[in-house]
Amino acid sequence: xxxxxxxxNVPEPVPKMQPAMMMFSxxxxxxxxxxxxxAMFDHQQQRHTGGQMSRRPSFCPINETPDKEGGEDSGxxxxxxxxxxxxxxxxxxxxxxxxxxxxxxxxxxxxxxxxSNEVEIYADCSCSKKEFNELLQHLKDHVNIIxxxxxAHVWSAEADGEDVPWFPMKISELDQCxxxxxxxxxxxxxxxxxxxxxxxxxxxxxxxEVAMNYKFGQPIPRIEYTLEEIQxxxxxxxxxxxxxxxxxxxxxxxxxxxxxxxxxxxxDNIPQLEDVSLFLRERSGFTVRPVAGYLxxxxxxxxxxxxxxxxxxxxRHSTDPLYTPEP
Length: 327
What we know:
Blueprint: H1 26-30, H2 36-45, E1 54-55, E2 78-84, H3 89-99, E3 103-111, E4 118-126, H4 129-140, E5 144-148, H5 152-157, E6 164-165, H6 174-178, H7 198-213, H8 227-247, H9 250-263, H10 273-284, E7 287-290, H11 297-305, E8 308-311
């Protein structure tokens, strides 16, 4: 569930809905056969479910400054109420706060453990004690108030006992996903063409170190590829170029000349990942980051959720350029 401001003196109706606010439109979800709140919870249940760490369901505060949990004023103007989970229920409830000209500091929601078809809303209000009491009287006529003056950490502690497995809440946390390599990093299986090549294995360790040391926000290190690696790349490049006219999609064929121009896609040059990432970001909003080897599906898809594609930088073994056991 995402947070939302209830602003004072907001003109109604809003002339044009911004894309970031579409998720709060009941009509938006109704067209998809969902209620506003059920859509939010469905989205929550699709979160990352891999890894060793865990994180309870949590929601972003409305204000950009994190609340100091357990502070002296925590919960003194907070109310918990329940709503029937139906189209537009949250929008109608938030309008009650607007009618009393009360802003919200923080809002959370969860499925009710008391009634199966209801949701419970925790709302921390920014108002005086008098304004809060007047708000409670107003809310009683429209919603079922469960409790008030309840600190957020107390309400959260009542949540379902089962922890939600850890997942990245912000793009910088992809550093943790990209470091959980399952296979094909510096260790090679016996059927790998480079398994008995100590020079190749040492080279692979170098690529692993580059990927494991990379952090979000840094430029991707540029690699000085060896002559053997460039020649191996050239063999694959020539073979694939023959297949592009009959096997590549239109989008790839359209962008291949641009990749050649801006990223150095050539038979005798291996493109740098940083150049490819900058090109993709400008064209599509996606970026690329180095990874040491094979990731779990959850970690790989976590990157795609932030428009980040994990990509290795090593080159296949020269003895068999057209084959690799790696995915």
